[in-house]
Amino acid sequence: MSNNIKDEMNKIKVPKELSERSIVGINQAKGKFLFYTFLVLFLIINTYIYGAVYYYYIPWKTGLLSKLTTIFVYLLGVIPLTAFLSEKLSSYLLIRVLRNQTSFIIFSTLLILIPVAIFSLNVINENKEKPLDSLFGYNSANFESMIIELSSDEVYETKDAADADEFIDFLSQYSIKKMRDSEWDGDVSNENGVLITFYKSNRDTPIMLNLYENRIHLWVGDYYNLTNIPIDINRLKEMIKTTGNYNRVDHIPVNLDDIQDE
User: Fold this and answer.
1) Contact, 204 vs 57, CB < 8 A?
2) What is the rounded distance in angstroms from the CA atom of residue 236 to the CA atom of residue 150?
3) What is the reported pTM?
4) CA 65 to each of CA 43, 60, 61, 62, 72: distance values in angstroms, whole numbers, following the listed order
C-alpha cells in the first residue's frame, strides 16, 4: 500500500516555475533571518561602543544641545550604518558561503547559541562570589580622590594614592555576592557603616557605595552580601582618622543625579 502511494507521488511532476519560486522564497526567508539577527547583534555591539566612546572620550556632555546631538547621531548615523552592514553581510554569506541547507543550519545555530552562551557566562560571573575591592576597578594610575563619610558631620577626603592603596588592600580581605533587590532591607538606621565616594580619572562620575558590616549598597542599584567575615567598620574608621593624608571636609561635592554605572 505504502509503495503504491510513493509510486503515485513520484509520478507527480512539479512545474519548473513553481520549484524556482520556492527556492527564491526560501532564500528570501534565509536572507531576512540573517539580516535581522545581524541587525540585533550589531546594534547591541555598536550601541555599547558608541556609549563607551561618548562616556570616556567626549569632553562635553552637559546641556540639552549635547544630548540632542548624541541622540541625533545615534538615530541617523549608528542605526542606518548598522542596518547597512547587516544587509551587506547577510547577502555575502547567503551567496558565497551558505549555499547549501546544512551549512546554513549550522551557521544559524551557532549565531544564536554563541550570544546566549556569552550572556549566560556574564550572568554567572555577575552573580558569583568575588572580592569586595573588585567593585572599584582600582588602579593607582587612574585614582583621583576618595571621600569617606564616617557620619553626617564627619567627612574625610584624600588625594593620595598611597591612602587608596591601603584602603583597597583593607577591603580585599572581604568577599561579596550579589543580592536580589527584593532581599535588601532599606532600614539601615541601626547599622554601623560609612559612605564611600571614589573618583577616577577614566570616568566622569564617581563610584559611590555604602559599606555596612554585613552588606553593601552600590549606588547604581546593586546590593551585596558579605560571604566570609563582617567588615570591621570601626577599624576602618580608625584608619581614616589616624593614618594617611586624610583631610576633614564639610560635605560630599557630588551631584547624585550624575551617578551611573561604569
Assistant:
1) no
2) 9
3) 0.58
4) 24, 10, 9, 8, 10
C-alpha cell at 18: 513553481
Distance, CA of 84 to chain centre: 26
Give the residue carrying C-alpha cell 513553481: 18
Type of residue at 196: I
Q: Which three cell numbers stand for residue 237?
A: 574608621
Q: How far apart are CA 153 and CA 131, in angstroms?
A: 30
Residue 248 CB contacts under 8 Å (≥ 6 apart), including other chains: 154, 155, 156, 157
Start-to-end CA distance of the chain, whole Å, equals: 70
> What is the residue-level pLDDT of the chain in tens, covering all 262 positions?
455 544 544 554 545 554 566 667 777 888 888 889 899 989 988 888 888 777 666 655 556 777 788 888 889 999 999 999 999 998 888 888 777 788 888 888 888 888 888 888 877 777 788 888 888 888 888 888 999 999 888 999 999 999 999 999 999 999 999 888 888 888 888 889 999 999 987 666 788 999 999 999 988 778 999 998 899 999 999 999 888 888 888 765 555 445 444 4
Query: C-alpha dihedral over 82, 85, 88, 93, to 10 degrees?
Result: -100
Largest CA distance in the chain: 97
Separation of alpha carbons 140 and 229, rounded Å: 26
Interior CA angle at 59 toward 84 and 249, to 5°? Answer: 140
